[in-house]
Amino acid sequence: MSENQAYNLAFKAVGRDVTIWPMAKIVRPEVIAIGDSVIIDDFVFMAGGRSTVIGSFVHIAMHTTIAGGGDLTMEDFSGLSGGVRVYTGNEDYNGGSLTNPTVPPPYRKPERSFVRIGKHVIVGANSVILPGVTIGDGAAIGANCLVTKDCEPWTVYFGSPARPLRSRPADQIHRLEKQLRGELYDSEGSYIPQSIRNENGQSQ
Fold first, then answer.
1. Contact between residue 168 and residue 139 where contact means Cβ atoms under 8 Å apart
2. Kindly report the CA angle at 196 between 193 and 199, in degrees rounded to 5?
3. What CA–CA distances, in Å, run from 160 to 81, 129, 181?
4. pTM higher than 0.85
5. Bond preceding residue 106 cis, omega within 30 of 0
6. Within the chain, which residue ranges are assigned CATH 2.160.10.10?
7. Which conformational region is residue 17 in: left (phi greater than 0), alpha (psi within -120 to 50 degrees), or beta?
8. Do 127 and 84 contact (CB within 8 A), yes or no?
9. How confident is the model over 87-135, as pLDDT tens digits?
């Protein structure tokens, strides 16, 4: 494996046990903050936009794109499966201006927005998330969904556009998170890096 990019790029902040595979493309790392125990796969394209905040225990799978120039938040334990598209901004489709990045202002007027992905959210392969969307904690977005509106917490969504299908139980996930934090965080709430856990003989 080639060198991990996580500690070679000038991120706004980067935690411990972060792996960014060498063929991921990161644009504007200076506006991107990353927590602990994060994996970003090869062939991910991530443009920092106005701001990007990625929590801890987050996975972004191969061929995923994050673009649009706006604000992205991915909270702890969230994940994007392969081929997901997240857009935090958009062009003016109503004909009020010219479009695409080759056009300078004031002829182009892109609309910058946000996407917020809550804790324990999982987004299925090849789904598309459009600007201005909040996906509530614990929601599960099925493969090939088109997310155009906010998604309720602890709800499974499917279809294009995405529609609620059924509830997703929270108790077991919260219980497992509490157990994990008890093992991987010290008494002051600080993450214990894997190297230290290995030295102490702690199971991985």
1. yes
2. 150
3. 17, 11, 36
4. yes
5. yes
6. 5-168
7. left
8. yes
9. 999 998 999 999 999 999 999 999 999 999 999 999 999 999 999 999 9
Rg of the chain (C-alpha set): 18
Encoded amino acid at 67, one letter = A
Q: Are 151 and 135 in contact (CB under 8 A)?
A: yes
Q: Can you read off the two tokens belonging to residue 176?
A: 């497992």
**Which DSSP helix (H) or strand (E) runs through 178?**
helix 171-184
Token representation of residue 67: 């673009």
Residue 154 zone, left/alpha/beta (φ > 0; ψ -120 to 50; rest): left
Q: Which structure tokens are listed for 202?
A: 């702690």
Angle, alpha carbons 163-168-171 (nearest 5°): 155
Architecture of the structural domain at 5-168: 3 Solenoid (2.160)
Tokens representing residue 33 in the block: 């903050």
